Amino acid sequence: MTTLRLALKSVLGNKLRLALTALAVVLGVSFVSGTFVLTDSIDEAFTGLFADANAGVDVYVNPVSEINLSGGGPPGVDATGGASLDEALLDDVRTVDGVADAVGLVQGVASIIGPDGERIGGQGPPTLGFSWAGEDGPITLREGSAPTGPDDVVIDVTTFTEQGFSLGDTVTILTPLGPGEFTVVGASGFGEEDNLLGATSASFTLERAQELFGMEGRLNQIAIAAAEDVDTLVLKDAVAAAVGSDTIEVVSVDEQIAQQTAELNEGLAFLDVVLLSFAGVALFVGAFLIVNTFSIVVAQRMREFALLRAVGASRGQLRRMVMLEAVVIGLVGGTLGVAGGIGLAELLKAVFGLIGASFPDGGLVLRPRTFIASYGLSLLVTVAAAMLPARRASRVAPVEALRGTGAADADHIGRGRTVRGALLAICGTASLLVGLFTAIGDAATMVGVGVGALFVGVALLAPWLARPVAGGLGRLLGGSVVANLARRNAQRNPTRTSTTASALMIGVALVSFVSILAASVTASVNALFEEQFTADLVLSAEGGFGTLPRTLASEVAAVDGVASVSASRLTIAELPDGRQTFVNGYDASTLADHLRVGASDEALAALQADGTVLVSAELLEEDGLGVGDTITISFPAVSAAPLEVVGAFENREVVDSDYIIDLPTYERVVGGGSDASVSVVLAEGAELETVQTAIEQVAEAYPGTDVQTLNDLLIRVQEGVDQLLNILIGLLFLALVIAVIGIVNTLALSVIERTREIGLLRAVGMHRRQVRQTVRGEAVLVAVFGALLGVAIGSFFGWAMVTALADDGIEVLVFPTARLATYVLLAAVAGVLAAVLPARRAAKLDILRAVTTE
Description:
It contains 29 helices and 23 strands.
């Protein structure tokens, strides 16, 4: 108990130190707990929502397919068509004993055009089209009536209300067949919710939906209601016995809800990965702060520890006391982290609501894993960070009690530290390069371990650089007394300086790496398109999200001045070994005029035959295939399509897949579909601006369609990369905040350590302003030193990543020097801000009390 009381007294005796140290843990833990709170809340809310929406259904009949067209992928993936059921199966289901009713369901893409002529949604949340399934279906009527005629539509209540629609209004809806005029006869919700994650919905009669979505005679699903007193599982078995096959599955409503929830969680998995990754970075940076804080505190308390040893305290008791202090900080950090996570989850829900992807109503869910993960990580980081300082404290000898207070300057850099740092740096670099440049199984783990080890290794070796770099940078401050004091303060304890700078190094390194990668991607894409894209204009969905109705291409082809038009489509397919891949559909007869795919004229001519495929030269070699061989690929509409290899193409980067098939073959194996983009080649002598204006007039009937030149397209790529870059930098800003807190902590403790020194300087004539300038100068030197290390390591990461991605088309390495220099400048500014409170405290020290401090 004595050890515990001493630990609590030490922690509570310096509440500012406790707060600053705990804050380093709180930010990282908040991301962890917030991620779990948000995903658990979403899971529970949607489980209830799906249960309500499926309340009138007992059994579902689904087509079997391992390919999920709505599961993601690059922009432009075709979400129409897909695995389906023969409509005749509906009559067979209705004859099964125990079936009270059965309804066929069809789903596709339908974009509602608002009164302002703009497409609603589509840039994030999907635009869904359904066949009306009656009151027992997932779409529930809120106002008006169900669709009964081919021109009737029921739209989601959010769109109905926010866009000011009224019953009887005419609305334009874009489907794969193009724009159509419909009469609004009702407003609907998804169960009790107004919409599903912000998605719009348009519901038609079954016959009209089949026509619009290219599903004539086909169904996506059959919903079955059981007769009274018929057990669901008994009915499921009866239906399966009547219609079951290898291509059809029969599931209970509970199994269907579980599958829907699993698909939703899979779609939101990216959120877990992103938030938890940044939580790991924040905790990693926070560990440096905690190590530094405990190291400084232990050094300053050597006399206290020696006195305790002199009165009988054992080494183990001292070690346990320091570790107990770490446990207290870990518990405080974990508690505040859970509270912060709840706030973060609410904030993220609000952000999703602002972009139109609102979640179902419901309270936040706190499951045991949130508390276990939050407290576990907080304690793990703080306790692990305190181990070495605790060990150092336990080694103090009782004779140290005879010395004065204050920590001696640490000029010596231990050999063990140097050896460990060198080994970690070498092993980390090797692991990183192996993960990037070899075909190892778990490359991501190798890269992650390598990055972490390299950071720690550089941090251990940094003291060798701290003194010369701080000396060189210090001369930039001038030759005044204040500048010399600031320089020498940064040099006097290179280990402390480097450890403080290392936290900032990590944040700046990651930001620099992301900036270099973004600049290289942009430059590479520009070079790629300029070399391989030969069309004059390209049409795509606004912002790159979604697809285009396939009728648009034929209308554009009729415009004066257009020589040829090439529509491209993109779908997900599965190879015999279970790998999923993307397959492009092009008009083989015009492809060579629009793209330089690196295929021979003979191969492109052969591709026009049904059932043929071009394979990227790289994959053709890897799989040991040759011209004339047959490969079997599973597509959404065809479970096994044998395709003859008629050639290879070299330039897969602009195609972004390894397989190209002709559009007639695509329509057979995918089932119709929408276009990812439409490219246009102008006739000889036609003026670009004139033809572009004419095409834009055609595209006015297809709201949400961009008509762009190559330069416009490259600008959009640049804007997209910059937007992603800014998001990543914004999230990494938390790591930089923790690093700045580390500088504040170090300077504050350093001022305490140098109390007598500052008092003597004030006694011999140093002004308070000069004291503040000295502390600020030291902070700037530490911050700039960390930033320079970060830029150096980030540049290495950037070079390694771009080099590793050369085969994927990222061939141009760019170092954005202006942006990197800005990071160093901002680090200097951060150093000035971090020094505000410590500098003020140092300047306000009472001279007499400071001079007499032991």
